[in-house]
Amino acid sequence: MKQTGDLKVLTDQRLSEKEIIINPNDGFDLSLMMTEADVALYFEDNPEQIFAKIIQKNECTLGTVELGQKSINKTNGNGKVRLIMTEQEGTSKLTITSV
């Protein structure tokens, strides 16, 4: 299991709930080596699984995560989250937890 530090949440209305944008340095904490990776996305306290894409962009400020409004609602509006990556067969599991 790998995880990021606390990340400040930024809303990007252009993003769907199937897109997550982070800085490559934060992606390094999750052992992401490619600019995009498919993940099985979960939100803390929500059993629903969403197949999503985590995208690493240098334009994203270090220590932040950009989420669409639907995803923000699933974090209960918390301003800080942590991303936790768990390796599993097939698609890796990414959980977004409130801090």
- Rg is 12 Å
- Low-confidence sequence ranges: none
CATH architecture: Beta Barrel
Sheet having the most strands: 7 strands, mixed, barrel
**What's the CATH first level?**
Mainly Beta
Percentage beta strand: over 45%
Work out the helicity level: 10-25%
**Could you give the order of the helices and strands?**
EEEHEEEHEE
Q: List the strand order in the largest sheet.
A: 2-6-3-5-4-8-7
Number of strands: 8
Q: Tally the helices: what do you get?
A: 2
Structural class: mainly beta
Question: How is this structure best described in words?
Answer:
- The protein has 99 residues and is mainly beta.
- The protein contains 2 helices and 8 strands; from the N terminus they run βββαβββαββ.
- The protein has helices spanning 24-29, 69-74; strands at residues 2-3, 7-11, 19-22, 36-43, 46-56, 64-67, 80-86, 92-98.
- The model has no long low-confidence stretch (mean pLDDT 94).
Secondary-structure blueprint of this entry?
Layout: E1 2-3, E2 7-11, E3 19-22, H1 24-29, E4 36-43, E5 46-56, E6 64-67, H2 69-74, E7 80-86, E8 92-98
Parallel strand pairs: 2-6, 3-5, 4-8
Antiparallel strand pairs: 1-7, 2-7, 3-6, 4-5, 7-8
List keywords for this structure.
Barwin-like endoglucanases; 7-stranded mixed β-barrel; globular; mainly beta; 2 helices; 99 residues
How is this structure best summarized?
With 99 residues, the chain is mainly beta.
